[in-house]
Every structure is written in C-alpha cells, then in structure tokens.
What does this fold into?
Amino acid sequence: MTISNLKQIKEIARTHSITQAANNLGIAQPHLSKTVKELEITLGFAIFNRSVKGVFPTDKGAVFLSYVDKILEQLENIDRLSQTEIDHRPFSVSIPRGSYIAEGFIKFVTENGHKDNSSFDISETNSVETINTIAEKRFNIGVIRYQNGQEKYFLDYLAEKGLKSDLVWEFEMLVMMSSKNPLAIKAEITSDDLGQFVEITYGDNKIPYRGAPASASFSVNSGSAAKKRCIYIYDRGGQFSLLRSLPETYMWVAPAPDSVLNAFDLIQRKCPHSRNRYRDLLVFRKGYRFSAMDKNFIDCLYKLRNEVSLKNYR
It folds into this structure.
C-alpha cells in the first residue's frame, strides 16, 4: 500500500467512478481496477460496492476512507512544513546561451525580484558543464541543449549523473545575422551561401566522449569552403554586438524574441540542413523538489518558448 494508492482510492470515492477517477489521475482504467482489487485482497475486505449507479464505499470501506483522509491530511501538513524550507532556498539555474531562455530568466527576475530575501544565481554555459554543476549541487536546476543525433550520449550521461529531465522544446536552429548582411535580401538561404561568410560560434560547445578528447562541436557545419572561417566566443552578449558591427558574420541560434533582434538590428532566417534538429531539456536531480521560485522560472521559460515558437520564419 502506497501513498499513491491512497490518493487513488480517495479519488474513486470522490467521483463514484473508477473510469472517471482514472481519467482524472491520468492512468489507465484497467490498471486502477487492478490496484483496487489488490488492495482489497491485502485488507481482507471490499472497499467499494459496484452498481449501475456508481461506485460507493462499503461500511468497512467508509471507515477505511476516514483513516485515509487523516493520513493524507497529515502528509499535506508535513509537505507544507517541508515546502516552507524549500521555498527559502536560494534560486540557481544553469542554462545554455539561448536568447529565449535568457529572456525567460529576465522576465522571471522582473516578476520576482521584489520579493523579500530573493536571491538569483545564473550561469550561461555548455550542456556538459550544466549537467556537472547540477549533479555536484552547485546549481539546483538547468537547461541543456543538444542535436537530436547526440541524444543517446546526453541521456546516458544524465543517467550516469543521477539526473532526470523534461523536454522543454524541440526546434530548428535559425541563422541570425545583421539586417545589412547581403544574405538578408535573399528569398532562400542555403548552407553553400553561408560558406562565403564568417561564422560566430561558441568555442566551448564540445562533447567529451569517454576516453576521447573533447570533440564534436554543436555548431552546424555549413558552407562548402575548404577552410571554414570562424570567430569563437564564450559569452552570449558578445555575439549580438559582433553580428551588428560585422555584417559579413552570421550565427546559428535558437529562435530569439523580437526584443533582442530589434535592439541590435538583427534578423533570423531559416536555412535547411540535415542535422538541424535540436532539443532543450530541463534537468534536475532525482528526488529534487521544485521551490515556488523554480516553478515561476519554468513558467516564464515556457511563456517565452511559446512566444518565439509561434512566429513564422522564412
């Protein structure tokens, strides 16, 4: 008998229907029916009577349910006591250098910075470093980014470090450039077009495969030039100034909000590429309980994701 079982029994009693309770709980009806039968066998008496009018407690079932209510009430009290301590925990997050994520953090701080004892710790870094900082408890939550073809490596690495993850977004990278870049007026941009220009990319986006040196850049290799021209950077802010000041440059980025583009006179364009599917994952330690601040940040993150995902890019 588990706490989950008790909550399931209470939901059946509330709805008078195993089918409705299963729908509300997001589980399969046959699975819930089996759970009830197994629990009744363990207790040695029937909890519910089934009839055409619905599912209702037996006499012993009603007494059992009264105990269930008391148990769940006490657990809620314990949870509230624990949550108070959790909500006083300093907020910390490690994220990729992605504009919509950074803008989500800005929105989060704007909405929560006025609260008493508020503390915010943010690091913009690569995905491997984010995983390590979460596992080592230097940061509480994080967002990682990888190409779809690299998924096995990252999921294995998360499992090795004892971390869990939730998908935030799967998307295509866009090419960001100055509105004065000669490619800005082209109807369609190809990877061959980019070969004439200088790519700005993050110098530390490497995957350290076990037993091998750091390799496998996240950057989408574009252009047919024999020797690719790159500017390697290590902070998000520098990319925008470079793109604006050097119209012959471009950068592969996740979709960014208009506020960022307008501030630096930049544009974003599609450029078809076979390896251009990426995923952003929210990562955290197993057993980690989200604070109210954590939940607020995640809400802001999803709002900014929705904002940029609904735009049309040509």
About this structure: The first strand starts at residue 48 and ends at 51. Residues 90-314 form a domain with the D-Maltodextrin-Binding Protein; domain 2 fold (CATH 3.40.190.290). Confidence is low (pLDDT under 50) at residues 210-226. The radius of gyration is 26 Å.
